[in-house]
Design a protein that fits this description.
Number of strands: 2
Largest sheet: 2 strands, antiparallel
Radius of gyration: 15 Å
Strand order of the largest sheet: 1-2
Helix content: 55-70%
Number of domains: 1
Oligomer: single chain
Shape: elongated
Structural class: mainly alpha
Length: 84
């Protein structure tokens, strides 16, 4: 069962500076996960890469749907242009 970061009808991260820092961290983590995919693809077997890519896909999806989308719904001005 998936948990969502909701408090009644509002999302948890209401404080703007905290939301801004979380957004920056999520973007940084996403970039690092992308970089890790390149590393695994270059150095590992296709089978290992496919398995790893599936896990990274799950992580990125959870970050987007569980953290970033709710955060940007609460603070739309923080949403990066790349995600528009």
């Amino acid at each position: 069962m998936r948990r969502r970061w909701k408090l009644k009808e509002k999302y948890v991260i209401r404080e703007k500076e905290a939301a801004s820092q979380v957004s920056a961290l999520m973007l940084e983590f996403g970039a690092k996960l992308d970089k890790s995919l390149e590393l695994v693809q270059e150095r590992c077997s296709n089978e290992e890469f496919e398995a790893y890519r599936n896990v990274v896909g799950i992580l990125l999806t959870e970050m987007l749907t569980g953290v970033m989308n709710p955060l940007y719904a609460q603070h739309p001005d923080l949403k990066p242009k790349e995600l528009l």
